[in-house]
Amino acid sequence: MLCNHILAKSATESPGKRRVQKAVEAVRESIGVMHGENRLVPHGWRYTAAKELADAGVDIRDIQAVTGHKTLQMVQKYASGTDQKHASKRAQQRREQNSGN
């Protein structure tokens, strides 16, 4: 059965790792990314989230809060692939905003 949400058992009790895994597997199966050439794995989503947040200029500690990494070094490893062109553009925009004050 495919559900739209992964819900906790109650307000104070998490659904449990296995239940979440099964729900994610059902979604992957239903959208055709469980096997084969288009296969997607949840661990890759963590990397993608870190990279996209870093590309958007999110602070490394905030990225850590989202991804759940225990150390900043691991967050930096995942976020190190940020797009330099975008990072440079953001830095220049910030510089221009600050010089106008």
Report on this structure.
This protein has one domain. Helix content is 59%, strand content 0%. The protein contains five helices and no strands. Helix 2 runs antiparallel to helix 3 and helix 3 packs across helix 4. The mean pLDDT is 81.
Topology overview:
Blueprint: H1 17-30, H2 42-55, H3 60-67, H4 72-79, H5 84-99
- Radius of gyration computed on alpha carbons: 18 Å
Main beta sheet strand tally, sense and closure:
none
Estimate nothing, just give the exact number of structural domains. Answer: 1
Distance between the termini: 57 Å
**Extended strand count:** 0
Give the overall form. elongated
The helical percent reads: 55-70%
Tally of contiguous helical segments: 5
Strand content: under 5%
Quaternary state of the chains:
single chain
Tell me, rounded to a whole number, the average pLDDT: 81
Spell the H/E element sequence: HHHHH
- Secondary-structure-based class equals mainly alpha
